[in-house]
């Protein structure tokens, strides 16, 4: 069949490769090319245990204090608040124990084998060299801070994820770079790392093209529908049709999804990173700085500190406060690391109100499919999402309960 994949991030490229391997004629259409957005700027962690959403019980009570604290990892463009409010009400409504358990169960099935899924996707390609099997660590300044985070660790343990708790001295035997920054470190097993996310996705896209796939750089302006079913994709180069169209446009998915009747409550959750170029010392594994909700990751030729959360929409430029927070905290945590320069970046995470990605058909005929909304775990869940979409289009039943991810649960009533 002729398939169009709209979007060339990790999710879109994964969909395209697995569809191509299933024997289909696949074209990727993207406005800027592979890994031009969040697939370039993420923390590079294959976070298999990222099964606890931001919306945990008590978030509503904590959020105002975080917004007013310059050292807290939550930011808001206040001018954007009126537009954000309807979404925010729905988003905070999911901060319940029941929804956390629902989310954890669903996301465990999607993420638990992330490292193996990446290895299968990249097998035989130049992208293989970017995949590592390092543990994912969480650094806490005090034991009390870890105890305050017990809710999340209990949920991960219940879901079957393995981790060990180390004191400062024990962790220093593995990696002394953090000195006295953390009193206690939680080390999560069976995770992984991508040493250069942007180069990794580009290598996968290059492989897709060498295998006969088409990569078309074009702005997607609109869609044409009849009775709620897509009939054409309207691009700057003209109308395009196919047997099936997969939408993997990340944070730019909302408008098209709504036109298809998938009325998902949706926002851009803005993320930031800084990179220390050519550092004098390199950490051995990704480290989540628990107090700042950002990850310090060793990458090819640089250390990346990526994370924090800002609500400010797709149109506004970067804010200075998140960059300054990252710089302050990295300087405190890695005081002995010198480097040549700092690079700054801001990007957009696709954030449905219930934090669950949309994976599946948008209509009963299966003319179009959604593959977006992964929030913080697009890199982690991208390859498996691509495999699932390819199976569905090829009429093979995926071995996973897809009900929590079904786009049609958001269908207009």
UniProtKB/TrEMBL annotation:
Transmembrane segments: none annotated. InterPro entries: FAD-dep_OxRdtase (IPR006076), FAD/NAD-bd_sf (IPR036188). The keyword Oxidoreductase applies. It comes from the Bacteria. This is D-amino-acid dehydrogenase. GO terms for molecular function: oxidoreductase activity. Keywords: Oxidoreductase.
């Amino acid at each position: 069949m002729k398939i169009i994949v709209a979007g060339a991030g990790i999710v879109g490229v994964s969909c395209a490769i697995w569809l191509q391997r299933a024997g289909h004629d696949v074209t990727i259409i993207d406005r800027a090319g592979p890994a031009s957005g969040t697939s370039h700027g993420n923390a590079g962690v294959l976070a298999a245990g990222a099964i606890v959403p931001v919306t945990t019980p008590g978030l509503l009570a904590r959020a105002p204090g975080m917004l007013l604290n310059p050292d807290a990892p939550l930011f808001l463009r206040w001018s954007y608040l009126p537009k954000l409010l309807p979404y925010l009400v729905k988003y905070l409504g999911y901060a319940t124990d029941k929804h956390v358990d629902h989310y954890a169960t669903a996301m465990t099935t999607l993420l638990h084998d992330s490292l193996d899924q990446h290895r299968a996707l990249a097998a035989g390609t130049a992208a293989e060299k970017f995949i590592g099997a390092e543990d994912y660590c969480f650094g806490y300044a005090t034991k009390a801070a870890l105890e305050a985070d017990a809710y999340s660790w209990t949920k991960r343990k219940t879901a079957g994820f393995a981790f060990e708790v180390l004191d400062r001295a024990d962790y220093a035997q593995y990696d002394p770079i953090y000195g006295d920054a953390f009193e206690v470190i939680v080390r999560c097993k069976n995770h992984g790392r991508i040493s250069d996310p942007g180069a990794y996705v580009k290598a996968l896209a290059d492989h897709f093209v060498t295998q006969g796939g088409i990569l078309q750089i074009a702005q997607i302006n609109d869609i044409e529908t009849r009775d709620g079913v897509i009939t054409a994709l309207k691009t700057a180069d003209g109308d395009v049709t196919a047997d099936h169209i997969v939408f993997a446009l990340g944070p730019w998915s909302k408008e098209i999804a709504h036109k298809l009747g998938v009325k998902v409550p949706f926002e851009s959750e803005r993320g930031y990173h800084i990179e220390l170029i050519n550092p004098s010392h390199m950490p051995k594994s990704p480290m989540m700085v628990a107090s700042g909700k950002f990850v310090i990751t060793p990458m090819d030729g640089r250390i990346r500190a990526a994370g924090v959360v800002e609500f400010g929409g797709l149109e506004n430029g970067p804010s200075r406060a998140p960059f300054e927070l990252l710089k302050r905290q990295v300087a405190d945590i890695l005081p002995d690391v010198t480097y040549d320069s700092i690079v700054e970046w801001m990007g957009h995470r696709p954030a449905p109100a219930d934090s669950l990605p949309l994976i599946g058909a948008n209509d009963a005929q299966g003319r179009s499919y959604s593959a977006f909304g992964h929030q913080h775990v697009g890199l982690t869940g991208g390859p498996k999402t691509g495999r699932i979409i390819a199976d569905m289009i090829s009429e093979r039943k995926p071995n996973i309960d897809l009900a929590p991810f079904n786009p049609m649960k958001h269908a207009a009533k």
